[in-house]
């Protein structure tokens, strides 16, 4: 992989064009081919991709956007940055995505959008969410920042509604050497608007034939252009993505085989992919345990790094305190925040590493049980 990355970086240095140049256009085309999206618009992060997507889909100041109570911060902050108001919805404990029944109950007169989120290892239920959206005249967008490679019925994540996003933050399944992101959409008007908004409102470059749309007075454009260096890195890594996704699936199987039935584990990840056009991708391997914080400390003492996704439900974060939510309002989100932990997981691990992690997890849980 390194020779390809080096070659890509050299091309950028020799071109002297470091921002918003040819490499970005090539990456957009390659990602359109990979995802099947009619349009891919490269931007500087997944967060900005969400903000620009919401604006391009016609969000007006004060519009309600239904979002899950449990997700990465940017799911909700992007709504505020775009001028909207997050309306939080509890999650399905199995998929960690917005629960369609709770969604229907949370719709108000000011709701205009639903932002479904695909987290960790499986795609959210979009059929039920889309049915609710249709009944209430809401536009569906997807925070598919973690979901590269995931498909339902042959359609890639992010393309089941008005549009979606990808994040190329270094730890994501396809990671750059810094920040980068993209908007995915089949709608030429949305594509043209995002292409203008990312560059101070100037109509998009012609390389990928974005419709030349000047953004109107509602939203001034911003500077959210993608760096060519990141585009070159991603172009070099993209051909290896499918192989890495297969390796990730094998690692996840190895984890599940070793942890299944272990007393003290409340939940192991389960994919909901069923048909031939359905595919899930393990971005992280997340388990739930009763005594999460003690397990994290124990693994840390044994040199095993973990990541707690997500330690505080979004409605309880200081940025959204003004909405007045109380503990107990989102029981499933709160339970996930208390119990979920991601074990070491990336494409360079092998099953020997998985064995070591699982032995340490199991011996900790066994010792807790005897101690009780
Ligand atoms: C990573 C991520 C984002 C934001 O992407 P950045 O590129 O880090 O800005 C948004 N939503 C979810 C669910 C994410 O995991």
What does this structure look like?
GO terms for molecular function: transaminase activity. Keywords: Aminotransferase, Pyridoxal phosphate, Transferase. With 372 residues, the chain is an alpha/beta fold. The protein has two domains: 2-239, Aspartate Aminotransferase, domain 2; 241-371, Aspartate Aminotransferase, domain 1 (Alpha-Beta Complex), CATH 3.90.1150. 39% of the residues lie in helices and 14% in strands. It has twelve helices and twelve strands. The strands form three sheets. The protein has a seven-stranded mixed sheet, with helices on both faces. α1 runs antiparallel to α8 (228-237) and α9 (241-259) packs parallel to α12. The model has no long low-confidence stretch (mean pLDDT 94). It binds pyridoxal-5'-phosphate. Pyridoxal-5'-phosphate is lined by residues 45-47, 71-72, 74-75, 117, 143, 145-146, 167, 169, 179, 181. Pyridoxal-5'-phosphate binds next to α3 and α4.
Q: Outline of this structure?
A:
The protein is an alpha/beta fold and 372 residues long. 39% of the residues lie in helices and 14% in strands. It contains twelve helices and twelve strands.
Tell me how many strands there are: 12
CATH topology of the largest domain: Aspartate Aminotransferase, domain 2
Fraction of residues in helix: 25-40%
| Percentage of residues in DSSP E strands | 5-15%
Based on helices, strands and strand pairing, what is the structural class? Answer: alpha/beta
EC number: 2.6.1.-
Keywords: Aminotransferase, Pyridoxal phosphate, Transferase
GO molecular function: transaminase activity
Protein name: DegT/DnrJ/EryC1/StrS family aminotransferase
């Amino acid at each position: 992989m390194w020779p390809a990355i080096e070659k890509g970086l050299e091309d950028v240095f020799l071109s002297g064009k470091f921002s918003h140049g040819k490499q970005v256009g090539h990456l957009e085309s390659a990602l359109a081919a990979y995802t099947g999206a009619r349009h891919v618009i490269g931007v500087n992060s997944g967060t900005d991709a969400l903000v620009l997507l919401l604006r391009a889909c016609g969000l007006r100041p004060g519009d309600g956007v239904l979002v899950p109570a449990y997700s990465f911060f940017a799911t909700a902050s992007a709504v505020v940055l775009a001028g909207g108001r997050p309306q939080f919805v509890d999650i399905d404990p199995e998929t960690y995505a917005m629960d369609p029944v709770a969604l229907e109950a949370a719709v108000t007169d000011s709701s205009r959008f639903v932002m479904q989120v695909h987290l960790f290892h499986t795609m959210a239920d979009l059929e039920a969410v889309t049915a609710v959206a249709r009944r209430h005249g809401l536009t569906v967008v997807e925070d598919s920042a973690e979901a590269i490679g995931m498909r339902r019925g042959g359609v890639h994540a992010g393309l089941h509604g008005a549009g979606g996003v990808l994040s190329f933050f270094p730890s994501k399944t396809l990671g750059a050497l810094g920040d980068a992101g993209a908007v995915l959409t089949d709608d030429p008007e949305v594509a043209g608007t995002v292409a203008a908004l990312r560059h101070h409102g100037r109509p998009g470059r012609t390389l990928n034939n974005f419709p030349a749309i000047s953004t109107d007075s509602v939203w001034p454009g911003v500077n959210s252009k993608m760096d060519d260096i990141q585009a070159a890195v991603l172009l070099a890594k993209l051909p290896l993505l499918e192989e890495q996704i297969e390796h990730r699936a094998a690692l996840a199987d190895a984890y599940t085989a070793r942890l299944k039935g272990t007393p003290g584990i409340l939940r192991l990840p389960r994919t909901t992919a069923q048909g031939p056009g359905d595919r899930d991708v393990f971005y992280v391997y997340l388990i739930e345990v009763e005594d999460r914080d003690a397990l994290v400390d124990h693994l840390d003492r044994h040199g095993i790094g973990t990541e707690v996704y997500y330690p505080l439900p979004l409605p309880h974060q200081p940025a959204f305190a003004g909405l007045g939510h109380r503990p107990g309002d989102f029981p499933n989100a709160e339970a996930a925040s208390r119990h979920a932990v991601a074990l070491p997981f990336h494409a360079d691990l092998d099953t020997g590493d998985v064995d070591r992690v699982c032995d340490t997890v199991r011996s900790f849980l066994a010792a807790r049980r005897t101690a009780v």
